[in-house]
Specification:
alpha+beta, Toxin, BrnT_sf, four-stranded antiparallel β-sheet
C-alpha cells in the first residue's frame, strides 16, 4: 500500500468539521500515521481506516491538494459496515 503524504493539511473549515463528529485533531493525526487500510472513494478522495491507541476506529476522508498534500475532508467513527470491512481486511492480512 502506498502511503500518502507525511503531513495533513489543516484549516479552520476541516478542524470545525471533525469537531462536529467529536473527533480530535490528535486522533486524526494518530490514525493517519498508522492507518492499515485505504480505499478509493468518490471525487478522487481516499478513505483511510485505522484505530487509535485507545481502540477508537476511525474513517478519515482525504483529498489531495494541488501540491499533492493530504487535506482532511472529514473524520468520524467507522460505520458498522465500514467496521465489518475493516475487520475482514485486517484479519486477512
Amino acid at each position: 500500500m502506498d502511503r500518502i503524504g507525511k503531513k495533513l493539511v489543516w484549516d479552520d473549515w476541516n478542524k470545525n468539521h471533525i469537531k462536529k463528529h467529536d473527533v480530535t485533531i490528535s486522533e486524526v493525526e494518530e490514525v493517519f500515521k498508522t492507518y492499515t487500510l485505504q480505499k478509493q472513494s468518490y471525487a478522487k478522495r481516499l478513505e483511510l481506516y485505522g484505530e487509535t491507541k485507545s481502540g477508537r476506529k476511525l474513517t478519515i476522508i482525504v483529498a489531495s491538494t494541488r501540491f499533492n498534500k493530504p487535506y482532511v475532508v472529514s473524520a468520524r467513527d467507522m460505520s458498522s459496515k465500514e467496521r465489518v470491512y475493516y475487520e475482514l481486511q485486517t484479519k486477512a492480512n
